[in-house]
Write a structure and sequence with these properties.
isomerase, single chain, 5-stranded mixed beta sheet, SIS_dom_sf, about 45% helix, alpha/beta, gluconeogenesis, EC 5.3.1.9, G6P_Isomerase, 16 strands, 6-stranded mixed beta sheet
């Protein structure tokens, strides 16, 4: 089954058709299928020349299947049924979607939160296999996870070489370290960027180990590939034309919905692909995930197998390829390079400097509301946390958005204290009340502007590029918290908790240096702090 793109608005259908005609006149469909790196202009040509390998992954990735099959058989023979993926951004989002949709268990570590990492370590270590995935080989989060698991395995009397698998690009420092340690290494195509790597080794290795049918993914992608070279009936061309043309016409907020689709979590993957590919040079398309449309003039609703201004239907492998193609086409329409990420390294460099400098520059809170410290400019006369939220909402431009960025435990909802023997209803209420993602919903109903939510540092490898490189219309709310039971990173002069806070402060510096309004809320007690956040949001 191939992917179908259906337009449910006459004006959008007409705009997309007009843009497709212009693209076909420029032979974009033929040139992209042939890997023409000149499609995005002279400045983008050098980068594009080494970033178009994703077009052929439905074929070339099949060469990896025998090697992946050996890893799977070995893991099954050893009874290793707890698969942990240590990876960030493109190295984690696609496997998470693949495994969730296939209903096979995969523990994803794309966090520096010590509590979340401790729980993964405590879960069946004797039956754990860890996939360490990093394109560059130098990702600080993934390096930290590798070091922590190596030590845990050794302390348990387990040889790490029997439990760690590495996926990286040829020639990366991680490849060399893995060879020296005796770890199995599967090399990815170096001509594929991280966010376009769903059908590469980064997507296939952890998914296959977890039990997903990766051959079907490739088959489904291969079935749609011939259509992407056509002028007519080309779903990638149609979708890319719609995304790019709508954004140029002012509809640059892309609300992603997956409804009752059998594909679970695809909007999270699309969010990274589009935000990091288009959010630069003051331009971009802002993906909005997990939010109801506001029926605003600047919104475009895309449904995954569900109703929207445009509906995209089809199997997961084919969807991956079509959205990648569409994003590249949208970049052409917008006049940007869809393969670079000029602002991603800035927050990383800020974090490194902070860690090397010693004590973190925490600053002085302008307000303390119970277990919540408030840091930010122009808030000296704020009365309480509700007043802070009100001012943030009022600061959103007419064409802007609010981004909530939580450097907390992504699974913290299940850490809420509940009395022993409590009913299911009581436990559900407690978990919901302790989930900081609920904050987004409470704030969203108090504004007609989009409110996005990102877990830090996970979002730094996706929407982080858009926040800093996209249009100057965002307002940013950071949430950090005391680390509690922190975790040392072996061989490094910092803990996970310190790294997590340094990442937040580093990104805050990158945002404020651009004059983008940023407020940081620090929870001195995480459970009580989240409860106070939700209470204050209800008071707005």
């Amino acid at each position: 089954m191939a992917v179908t793109v259906t337009f449910n608005e006459e004006r959008l259908a007409a705009l997309a058709a007009e843009t497709v005609r212009a693209l076909v006149a420029d032979r974009v469909h033929e040139r992209l299928a042939a890997g023409d790196a000149t499609l995005w202009g002279e400045e983008a040509q050098a980068e594009a020349a080494i970033r178009l390998g994703w077009l052929n992954l439905p074929l070339t990735s099949r060469e990896l299947l025998p090697e992946i099959g050996i890893l799977v058989e070995r893991a099954r023979a050893q009874g290793l049924d707890h698969v942990v993926l240590a990876g960030m951004g493109g190295s984690s989002l696609a496997p998470e979607v693949i495994c969730t949709s296939a209903d096979v268990p995969l523990t994803v570590l794309d966090t520096t939160d010590p509590g979340q990492v401790r729980r993964a370590l405590a879960d069946r270590l004797e039956r754990t296999i860890v996939v360490v995935a990093s394109k560059s080989g130098g990702t600080v989060e993934t390096d930290s996870h590798r070091r922590i698991y190596e030590q845990a395995f050794r302390e348990a009397g387990i040889d790490p070489a029997e439990r760690i698998v590495v996926v990286t690009d040829p020639g990366s420092p991680l490849e060399q370290a893995a060879i020296e340690a005796g770890y199995p290494v599967i090399l990815a195509d170096p001509n594929v960027g991280g966010r376009y790597s769903a059908l590469s080794a980064f997507g296939l290795v952890p998914s296959a180990l977890a039990g997903a049918d990766v051959l079907k993914l490739l088959d489904d992608a291969d079935a749609v590939r011939p259509l992407l070279a056509q002028a007519e009936g080309n779903p990638g061309l149609e979708l890319g034309a719609a995304l790019g043309a709508a954004a140029l016409a002012g509809r640059d907020k892309l609300v992603l919905e997956d409804g009752m689709s059998e594909i679970n979590g695809l909007p999270d993957w699309i969010e990274q692909l589009i935000a990091e590919s288009t959010g630069k040079s003051g331009k971009g398309i802002l993906p909005v995930v997990g939010a109801d449309p506001n029926d605003s003039d600047d919104e475009l609703v895309a449904g995954i197998d569900s109703d929207g201004s445009v509906t995209v239907a089809g199997p997961l492998g084919a969807q991956f390829l079509v959205w990648e193609y569409a994003t590249a086409v949208a970049g052409r329409v917008l006049g940007i390079d869809p393969f670079n990420q000029p602002n991603v390294t800035e927050s990383k460099e800020n974090t490194s400097r902070l860690l090397e400098a010693g004590d973190l520059p925490l600053g002085t809170p302008v307000l303390v509301d119970g277990p919540v410290e408030v840091y930010g400019e122009d808030l000296q006369d704020a009365k309480d946390l509700s007043d802070v939220f009100t001012r943030l909402l009022q600061a959103i431009p007419d064409d802007g958005y609010l981004a909530v960025m939580a450097y907390l435990d992504r699974e913290a909802a299940f850490d809420a204290p509940v009395a022993e023997g409590a009913s299911f209803e009581v436990m559900t209420d407690a978990w919901s009340a302790a989930d900081p993602a609920t904050l987004r919903g409470l704030l969203a109903v108090r504004t007609d502007r989009p409110v996005t939510f990102g877990w830090g540092p996970r979002f730094l490898h996706s929407t982080g590029q858009y926040h800093k490189g996209g249009p100057q219309n965002g307002v940013f709310l950071q949430i950090t918290g005391e680390a509690g039971d922190d975790l040392e990173v072996p061989g490094r002069p910092y803990t996970l908790g310190r790294l997590q806070l340094a990442q937040a402060l580093g990104d805050q510096g990158a945002l404020t240096s651009r004059g983008r309004p940023t407020v940081r809320l620090h929870l001195t007690d995480r459970v009580a702090g989240v409860a106070r956040l939700l209470e204050a949001a209800r008071e707005v």
